Amino acid sequence: MPSIRKILIFILALHCHWWLLVRSFFSRSALLEAFACFGIISTTAGASFSSLYLTKAPSHGDVRVSANPSPPCLQGKKLEPLLVSPVIILFYFCILSHGICRQDPVSTPDHQISVKVVHCCPTMASTRVAVVTGGNKGIGLAIVRALCKQFKGDVYLTARDPKLGEASVKKLQEEEGLTSHFHQLDITDLQSIRALRDFMKKEYGGIDVLINNAGIAFKVADTTPFHIQAEVTIKTNFFATRDVCTEFLPLIKPHGRVVNVSSMSSQHALAKCSKDLQNKFRSDTITEDELVALMEKFVEDTKKGIHSQEGWPNTAYGVSKIGVTVLSMIQGRRLSKERGADGILLNACCPGWVRTDMAGDKATKSPDEGAETPVYLALLPSDAEAPQGQFVSEKKVGKWWLSCGWKKFYNDEHDVCVFCLPDAYSIKNECLHLRAEVGVGMEHWPL
Q1: Is the peptide bond before 387 cis (omega within 30 degrees of 0)?
Q2: Cβ–Cβ under 8 Å, residues 421 and 438
Q3: Is residue 32 very low, low, confident or very high in pLDDT (cuts 50, 70, 90)?
Q4: Residue 356: what pLDDT?
Q5: What pLDDT digit, counting tens, does each position of 306-344 carry?
Q6: Are 241 and 404 in contact (CB under 8 A)?
Q7: Distance (Å) of CA 152 to CA 184, 259, 289, 351
C-alpha cells in the first residue's frame, strides 16, 4: 500500500539522518546532545528501533552504534512505536542518571563507528569512604567511633582477626547506634593489603581518608631477646605501615587525608640517638630508600649486639616510630610535589599517653581523647593547605625533635619516667603540672 511504503521510506530516511547526526555529534564530543537527538527521533519513528540497537564491545568497554537489520531478540515480533519509544527514552535517562565519569578516545576497526569510551561510575563511587587500620580496639576503635559520628561517608574498621573486627562493628551498632563496616586487614601480609586495596578501588573508586593506626609494642617485662623484639617491631610498625601507604596512596582521592599514628616516643628515641643519626633523620632531603636503609641497619645492629655502639637507643618501639614520623615527612613532601593540585594532606601524629592494652591503665588519656588529634587531621577542611608532612600533637604542629633543655622527672610511686618542657616543675598523681601558657610534651617510660 502506498501509505505503508511512504512510512517505510520516512523511517529509512530518519534512520540515515540519525546515523549522520550521531557521527557528527560524537566527532564534536557532544555525547549528551547525541543521546537527546536519538530520543527525539525515536519518539517520532519508534519502529526504527528494530534496525537500531546498542552493542557493547567486550574488548574496549565502549558503546557504539550498530546498523544491523534487526536485533535477534526482536526478529519476528511486532512492536508498537508508541510503546518502544518511551522504553528507549527511559533507557537513556537511566544511563544519564548514573553519570558519566570520564570519556577516553578509542580506536576502533574501520567498519565501525568510532566513539568515546564511556566509563560509568559504580553506584558507590560517589560515596566517601574512610579506612582505619587496627580498628577493633583501643585508639583505633575510638577513631572509628568518632568518624562514624563526624565523617560523611562509609567508615571501615579493619583488623587481622575477622571475629574481633566484626564483633567491634556489631558492638558499635548495638550499643551506640553507629554504623561502620568491616574488612579484614593484616598489615604484615601484602596479599591482605592488596585485597583491601582492590576492594576499595572496585567499590569506591578510591579512598578519601586513611588512618594508619595498627602497630605493636612489647611489654617492658617481656623477656623476648631484644634483637627479636627489634625485628618484629620494625617489621610491623614501620615496614608494614610503609607497605599500606605504597599500595593505598595512589588510591587517595583529591582532597584526601592520610594520618600515620606515631608517638612521642619517636622524639625521645631520637634524642637518645647519636648526633650523626639525629642529623640523618632530621634532614629535609632524606629519601625513602635512605630511611629504609637506616631501619634495616638498626635491626641488623641489634642482631650483632652492637646497636648501642652504633648510636641507637635501646628502644625498638621508639625507633620504629622514628621511622613512621620521618616516612610521613617524606611522603608529605612527595605528595606536594607530585599531586600538589589534588590537595592531599598526609601527616604523622601523637595521640598522647592513652589507656590501652599497649600503654596500660595508668595513662592519662581515654581512648576517645587519644583519637582527637588523628580525627582532627582526618577531617581537615577540603580547602586546607596545611599541615603537610608534619608531626602533630594535641592538634598542633611542633618541632619533632626535643630541645636539649628538656627535663626528666622520675615518679617513684608509679615507676615512670617523664620527659617534659623546661618549665615543668613537678609530677603528682600521674599528671604533669606546668606553669601557665606553657605547652605540654609528655610520654611515659616504664622502667
Answers
A1: yes
A2: yes
A3: very low
A4: 81
A5: 999 999 999 999 999 999 999 999 999 999 999 999 999
A6: no
A7: 22, 18, 36, 23
Cell of 304: 650483632
3-state secondary structure 293-338: HHHHHHHHHHHHCCCCCCCCCCCHHHHHHHHHHHHHHHHHHHHHHH
> One-letter amino acid identity for 282?
R
Q: Please give the positions annotated as active site.
A: 317
Q: Which residue has the cell 544519564?
A: 96
Is the C-alpha dihedral spanning 175, 177, 183, 185 positive or negative?
negative
**Which is nearest to 101 in space by CA: 126, 136, 84?**
126
Residue-level pLDDT at 400: 66
Q: Which H helix or E strand runs over 230?
A: helix 226-233
Closest CA to 214 of 166, 255, 173, 158: 158
Residue 80, sorted as left (phi over 0), alpha (psi -120 to 50) or beta, turns out to be: beta
Q: Which helix (H) or strand (E) covers residue 411, if one does?
A: strand 407-411
d(CA 414, CA 446): 9
Chain-centroid distance, C-alpha 376 = 16
Q: What is the DSSP letter of 283?
A: -
Cβ–Cβ < 8 Å for 212, 245: yes
At 432 the three-state DSSP class reads: strand
**Per-residue cell: 300:** 641488623
pLDDT digit string, tens, across residues 194-230: 999 999 999 999 999 999 999 999 988 899 999 999 9
Find out whether 120 and 63 touch, Cβ atoms under 8 Å. Answer: no
CA 323, CA 265: separation in Å to the nearest integer? 11
- Contact at 8 Å (CB) between 440 and 350? no
Round to whole Å and give the CA distance between 182 and 144.
11
Instruction: Give this prediction's pTM.
Output: 0.66
- Work out the average pLDDT over 128-156: 97
